[in-house]
Design goal:
The complex is a heterodimer of chains A (about 200) and B (about 325). Chain A is an alpha/beta fold and about 200 residues long. Helix content of chain A is about 35%, strand content about 25%. The chains are: A alpha/beta (about 200), B alpha+beta (about 325).
Chain lengths: ~200, ~325
């Protein structure tokens, strides 16, 4: 287990040390010691945002955070190599709510059809990401809400850009998927075997 | 200083006053107000801090905008200012100090305020700020108190500057975002204050170190009323939400939350990152004001027309004697 002593450091230094350690060493588990509550919460949040499950222990006024990698959102291949050979990981990124230019009604119809037909990829469909105008497909009233919910129930991870939702003032109206950030998106691109951008 | 610590330090001290003091220490308001004649009162305030941006010229501008803001938050017009300077004369080039002061001067010029003096000391760390004096009619003083039931709450700048500054320190913010936040912090609250003076505003403050909910808590406590915040309507710097999710949150935000936790109730549907932004300490943040409900739309339109583009209605005052803040 990678161990970091970040005592005596103020925010954001402990988070930066944790970030550097994850980037350089791809550890399965990491232990970070800090000496103030703000750093403790920040480090826990950072690890959780990177796909780690954390456990906190208080010891002589210090905070000991142990993180175990549980998901693939962080930027390292943690699955056994065999598994990766078995199936591809395809990431589909929709930056618009319609396909192509020209006729908008046709574009929307195509997008609906595209999203419904994606299921033919089977379990190789690994991430579905919505950014910019694409986020409008995830809000109340979208024609594909039921389809997306179905995908999500089947275990597909759907990521929706928080900046975009916020920009369109749609944060409260999102019906499906996890709100995400650019770091998660970039990490997913790095991990995917194939990225399809619409 | 963290909220609570200063209260403990001052607890039990006796501060003499006189009948001309309209707003004094006991009110813990944005600035002090002293009546000079029937139609004139002086507003006095002072604020200084360590550099929050790398560029000395912009640091000077932001420090001046921040110091002037307390006068605007009271409804007054700043007139004169004095510099407060701490500088490591032996370790640093004097041209840096010159740029800081130039930044402050340019901001004062924009605000039509004259610099009439100052004081400097040698210190290990740079600190800069100003003491500002302004004028106001004694009957028009706007404090944090006097909230009325059904008033609408308006905020004039987006939140998240503290978190973005933390991300800048971590070298994770883009140059574009750094420029954007610097400009935001250096923007005077003058135009917002000028616009609100024509409306039926009952209370006003500026959002700074205690964060949005911390400063709202100051308005609500003692009012006999409560506030409801519509979290989705509060203007927020989008990137601040992303940085908050990654744990790039200044320690002050956690202190602000812990200090005010007992009087704040946040619905589970409000994302954690957004909650953090609501407690994020701001530097030179926007004005937070309570306006008569019927005038809210008109005031927002007038603010936007005056260039205060982020202005938004963020909540309302409700008839609930518990003095709580409900965030929904």
């Amino acid at each position: 287990m990678k161990e970091i002593d970040a005592r005596g450091l103020a925010c954001p230094a402990p988070v930066l040390q944790a970030k550097a350690a994850l980037q350089e060493e791809n550890p399965q588990a990491v232990k970070i010691v800090v000496d103030n509550a703000a750093s403790q919460q920040n480090v826990q949040r950072f690890l959780e945002s990177q796909g780690f499950q954390t456990v906190l222990e208080q010891k002589d006024g210090d905070y000991v955070i142990v993180g175990q990698c549980v998901s693939l959102t962080a930027d390292q291949p943690r699955e056994p190599a065999i598994d990766q050979n078995e199936k591809k990981k395809i990431m589909v990124m929709c930056a618009t709510d319609r396909i192509g230019f020209g006729d908008d009604a046709l574009g929307l119809k195509l997008m609906v059809s595209f999203l419904r037909t994606l299921k033919e990829m089977g379990d190789e469909l690994w991430r579905l990401v919505f950014v910019n105008n694409g986020v409008k497909l995830t809000i109340a009233g979208s024609q594909v809400i039921d389809d997306l919910r179905h995908y999500e129930k089947e275990g597909l991870k759907i990521l929706v850009c928080g900046t975009c939702l916020d920009h369109f003032k749609l944060l409260e109206q999102k019906q499906v998927g996890e709100t995400t950030n650019m770091l998660d998106i970039v990490t997913a691109i790095q991990l995917a075997d194939k990225v399809v951008s619409i | 200083m963290p909220p609570g610590d200063l209260d403990r330090a001052l607890c039990g001290l006796i501060f003499p006053s006189d009948e001309n003091v309209i707003v004094g220490l006991e009110r813990a308001d944005d600035a002090g107000v002293y009546q000079v004649s029937n139609d004139l009162a002086l507003i006095q305030t002072v604020d200084f801090f360590t550099p929050i941006v790398d560029d000395p010229y912009w640091f000077g501008q932001i420090a001046a905008a921040n110091a002037l803001s307390d006068v605007y938050a009271m409804g007054g017009t700043p007139k004169t200012a004095m510099n407060l300077v701490a500088f490591p004369v032996k370790q640093m080039d004097l041209s840096i100090l010159r740029q800081i002061i130039q930044g402050g001067l340019d901001k004062l010029k924009e605000a039509e305020v004259v610099l009439i003096g100052g004081h400097s000391i040698e210190d290990r760390e740079i600190k800069y700020g100003l003491s500002v004096t302004g004028f106001i009619h004694p009957a028009k003083v706007l404090t944090k108190k006097n909230l009325r039931c059904k008033d609408r709450l308006l905020l004039t700048k987006p939140l998240g500057a503290g978190i973005v500054n933390t991300a800048i320190k971590a070298e994770m913010a883009s140059a574009r975002l750094t420029a954007q936040i610097t400009h935001l912090m250096a923007t005077l609250n003058r135009d917002a204050a000028r616009v609100l003076s024509a409306f039926d505003v009952s209370a006003c403050t500026d959002v700074t170190g205690f964060g949005f909910l911390g400063h709202l808590a100051e308005m609500v406590s003692g009012s006999g009323m409560s506030a409801r915040i519509f979290s989705g309507q509060v203007p927020v710097i989008a990137e601040a939400l992303e940085f908050a999710a990654m744990g790039l949150i200044p320690a002050g935000a956690y202190q602000n939350r812990a200090f005010r936790e007992p009087m704040i109730s946040i619905a589970e549907t409000v994302a954690r990152d957004r909650q953090d932004v609501f407690f994020d300490p701001q530097t030179s943040g926007g004005l937070l004001m309570a306006v008569k409900a019927e005038q809210s739309d008109g005031l927002i339109a007038a603010l936007k027309e005056a260039g205060v583009e982020a202005a938004a209605e963020v909540g309302e005052i409700v008839d609930d004697a518990q003095e709580k803040i409900w965030v929904v």
